[in-house]
Design goal:
Layout (H helix, E strand, L loop, with lengths): L1 H4 L4 E5 L13 E2 L2 E2 H6 L3 E5 L5 H10 L5 E4 L3 H6 L4 H7 L4 E6 L14 H7 L20 H24 L4 E5 H8 L1 H10 L17 E5 L4 E5 L6 H7 L3 H4 L7 H6 L1 H12 L4 H10 L4 E3 L3 H5 L2 H5 L3 E6 L3 E6 L32
Parallel strand pairs: 1-4, 5-6, 6-7
Antiparallel strand pairs: 2-3, 8-9, 9-10, 11-12
Length: about 350
C-alpha cells in the first residue's frame, strides 16, 4: 500500500473463494471489513488459485512483466508450489523477490505459523509490556505486522536502487522476528551485557529514565517525562516541590533511577491534587515534556492530526465513503497520493498480470 501511494502499480493476488483473510475481520462497512479497507488502497485484485498447477503457471508467466514480487507464504508452501526465488529469478533475472515471514526462510521455526501476537511473545515484547503483577500484554495495534511491512518496502527500494547499477534483481527477506528485535536492541544489549532481565514496569515507567511514564491525576491520566537533568528543576517547580530539586538523592537521572521508588512515592500524591488539563498546562508552561492520553475519538479531532491532513476520505464505488490514513512520508517534489480505492475480491481480470497498466 505504501508503495502504491508513491506510484507503484500493485496487483494483489487473492484466493478466489474468500480472498485476503482480513476481508472477514469485523467491523464492516456495507459488508466489507474496515480492517481490509484500511490497508489495501491503491491495489488491484486478481483472484487466482495458487494451489492449482494452472494458477502457478499463470503467476510464473506474470513474473516476466513485473519488477517486484512480494509474498508472505511459509517456506514449505513456496517449495511445494515451485514459487521460490531460484525458479522465478531464472525466468526474470531482474526480479526483486521479497518474502515476509514470521521467523525467516530457514531454521527451526521457519515453517511455524506466525502472527503478530505469537511473535510478540516469542521475541520478548510481551515480557516487558503490562503491569509487574499482571499478565503479559501485547500492544493495542499490530505494530510488528506494520513494522515488517515498512521494512519490506525499505528493502525493496534498496534492491531497486541496486538494480539500477547492476541490472540484476535480488532476494529481499524480512521477518516479523527480525523486525521486532531490531527495535528491542537496547533491551537485548542489557540482557547480554549483565544478565539483567528487563521487566515490565508499573504505569509505563521507563527503566533508564525517572520520572518517565503514565501518571494518575485527579480526573484521569497523563504522560510525562523528565528526559534530562535540565528539566528536573522546572518539573519540581511545577509540582510546587522545590525541595525535591535540591534533594541529594535526585540530583541526576542516574540517582533518580537508583532511588526510583522513593521519588515516585513523593511525586504521585502531588499529581492527584489537580486535573489532567491543569497539570498539562503547568508542565507545558515550564517546558516539561508531557501529553494527554487520547481515545481514538479524540485522535480524530486532534488539531495536529487535522493540520497534518492525516485523514483522507476515499469514495469506494461499492462501500461509499471510507476514511483512511495517508502515507506518513511527505515528499516535496513527488508526494504520495491516495489513488485507487481498496479493490473488491477479483475485481480485475487475470490479464492484469500479463501487462501492468
Amino acid at each position: 500500500m505504501l508503495l502504491a501511494d508513491h506510484g507503484a502499480d500493485v496487483v494483489k493476488v487473492e484466493e478466489p473463494s474468500r480472498g485476503d483473510d482480513t476481508r472477514a475481520f469485523p467491523p464492516y462497512i456495507a459488508g466489507e471489513s474496515t480492517y481490509y479497507l484500511s490497508l489495501n488502497r491503491g491495489k488491484k485484485s486478481v483472484a487466482l488459485d495458487l494451489n492449482s498447477a494452472r494458477g502457478q503457471e499463470i503467476l510464473r508467466s506474470a513474473v516476466t512483466e513485473f519488477d517486484v514480487l512480494i509474498h508472505n507464504y511459509r517456506p514449505v508452501y513456496v517449495e511445494r508450489a515451485c514459487l521460490g526465488y531460484e525458479e522465478l529469478a531464472a525466468i526474470n533475472p531482474r526480479l526483486i523477490y521479497c518474502t515476509i515471514t514470521g521467523f525467516g526462510t530457514s531454521g527451526p521455526k521457519a515453517d511455524k505459523h506466525a502472527y503478530d501476537l505469537f511473535v510478540a511473545g516469542i521475541a520478548g515484547l510481551m515480557s516487558v509490556t503490562g503491569e509487574p503483577d499482571g499478565p503479559p500484554q501485547r500492544p493495542g495495534v499490530n505494530l510488528i505486522d506494520h513494522l515488517a511491512g515498512i521494512n519490506a518496502a525499505f528493502g525493496i527500494l534498496l534492491a531497486l536502487k541496486a538494480r539500477e547499477r547492476t541490472g540484476r534483481g535480488q532476494r529481499v527477506e524480512v521477518s516479523l522476528l527480525d523486525s521486532l528485535l531490531s527495535c528491542s536492541g537496547y533491551l537485548v544489549a542489557a540482557e547480554a551485557a549483565n544478565g539483567k532481565t528487563p521487566q515490565p514496569t508499573s504505569h509505563n515507567q521507563h527503566a533508564q529514565i525517572v520520572p518517565y511514564g503514565t501518571f494518575r491525576t485527579a480526573d484521569g491520566y497523563i504522560n510525562l517525562g523528565v528526559l534530562h537533568d535540565k528539566v528536573w528543576h522546572p518539573f519540581c517547580h511545577a509540582l510546587s516541590r522545590d525541595d525535591l530539586s535540591v534533594d541529594p538523592r535526585f540530583q541526576t537521572n542516574a540517582l533518580r533511577v537508583e532511588h526510583k521508588s522513593a521519588l515516585l512515592d513523593l511525586v504521585r500524591p502531588v499529581l492527584l491534587s489537580r486535573t489532567a488539563d491543569e497539570w498539562l498546562e503547568a508542565f507545558e508552561a515550564v517546558g516539561v515534556p508531557c501529553g494527554p492520553i487520547n481515545s481514538f475519538a479524540e485522535v480524530l479531532t486532534d488539531p495536529q492530526v487535522i493540520h497534518n491532513s492525516l485523514l483522507v476520505e476515499m469514495q469506494h464505488p461499492a462501500y461509499g465513503s471510507v476514511t483512511v490514513v495517508r502515507s506518513p512520508v511527505l515528499l516535496s517534489e513527488t508526494p504520495a497520493r491516495v489513488s485507487l480505492p481498496p479493490p473488491t475480491l477479483g475485481e480485475h481480470p487475470i490479464s492484469m498480470l500479463r501487462r501492468p497498466a
